[in-house]
Amino acid sequence: MPNITLNKLDSLRAVLRGYGSCLVAYSGGVDSALLAVVAHEQLGDRMLAVIADSPSLPRRELSEAKLLAVEHAIPLHILHTSEFDNSEYQSNPVNRCFYCKHELFSHLKPLAIDRKMSVIAYGENVSDLGDWRPGAEAASKFEVRAPLKEADLTKDNIREISSYLRLPTADKPQTPCLSSRIPYGQKVTPEKVGMIEEAELFLRDLGFNEVRVRHHDSGPVAKIEVVPEQLSQLREEETFQAVLASFTRIGYSEVQVDEKGYRRGSLNPSEKMN
């Protein structure tokens, strides 16, 4: 691993030691997994990882996050959040993530006080700057820290360090919440995200690891995004017929393939980079 990245890892360790104690918002994704592992390495029982469990978190993601915590002896608390009871979240505005993170941090704040944790931290990093991240506004409101960003870590740095530490998340694809598959302005419901979860699980079991199923209400229609190099595999007659049969059983009346392939944030508003 390059010295500059090793130096950033040392910086992250120093940042976390400086906190004294830390409650980590943990999902098991590449960013929060590294944060939780290094926080535990530096703080021991003066840290606590907290998973927000709701319908928008795939069950497989929850299981993998719990397993990683067990393997690294990370203290873990599962918090059941209620963003789906919030009409503002359900209406799915362009800043939907604000309401989700607000719900999470509003529970983490008293938990941190109760557990005598001086800092709440989450996995924002330097590569997130300039991206569409309304959740960062909620983090600012609750004074949540971003140690990965404070240590100047990019997404590539995080993957390099994760590989160096032999974490299983080093090459893990991005896994945003299931609600992100529903176009803004179309209502978010547990039933819809349940359909999305089942559809994506089927595709992943076929070998499509970087995949999104965009759920459109008219029908409903499932629009599949896979990485461009796997488009031909998805178009194979036998594969697509299996997908069509599975998605029909799930409840979709039409299945489309996005010919542009998977790209991050394809449903984000065009003004996100302003």
TrEMBL record:
Domain of life: Bacteria
CDD domains from the UniProt entry: LarE-like
SUPFAM superfamilies linked: Adenine nucleotide alpha hydrolases-like (SSF52402)
Protein name (record): ATP-utilizing enzymes of the PP-loop superfamily
Active site: 177
Coiled-coil ranges from the UniProt annotation: none
Database matches in PANTHER family: EXSB FAMILY PROTEIN, NAD_GMP SYNTHASE DOMAIN-CONTAINING PROTEIN
InterPro entries linked: LarE, Ni-pincer_cofactor_biosynth, Rossmann-like_a/b/a_fold
Gene3D superfamilies, sorted: HUPs
Molecular functions (GO terms): sulfurtransferase activity
Species whose genome carries this gene: uncultured verrucomicrobium HF0070_15G23
